């Protein structure tokens, strides 16, 4: 049994802190967009800036977070760095998430806590 399975079996009602941190790191739209781009192959910060449409400093901060979480690695190439996914399992996780979202239809988007707020909800805030 893997360590994650062991920790879940020990107390199925306790959220594993590592899993919470992982999903929080994936919960930011910019970081998720960066990971989706890196799933296609290595990229420089300037490539990611173009892809996600954020400032270079913001993309660099997101990459720093993803590196600290062990999800992204980088290697120097001249004066730049090429960034890539650290673990191929991340591709499986992203694919599983897409399958789950396809299976649930719009339910996640319509979730009152985490979904996209409707125009009516926005006007009442």
TrEMBL record:
Entry keyword set: DNA-binding, Transcription, Transcription regulation
Domain HTH arsR-type: 8-105
Entries under Gene3D superfamilies matching the protein: Winged helix-like DNA-binding domain superfamily/Winged helix DNA-binding domain
Tree of life domain: Bacteria
InterPro entries in the record: ArsR-like_HTH, HTH_ArsR_DNA-bd_dom, Metal_resp_trans_reg, WH-like_DNA-bd_sf, WH_DNA-bd_sf
Gene Ontology molecular function: DNA binding; DNA-binding transcription factor activity
NCBIfam families attached to this UniProt entry: HTH_metalloreg
Name recorded for this polypeptide: ArsR family transcriptional regulator
Organism, scientific name: Streptomyces parvulus
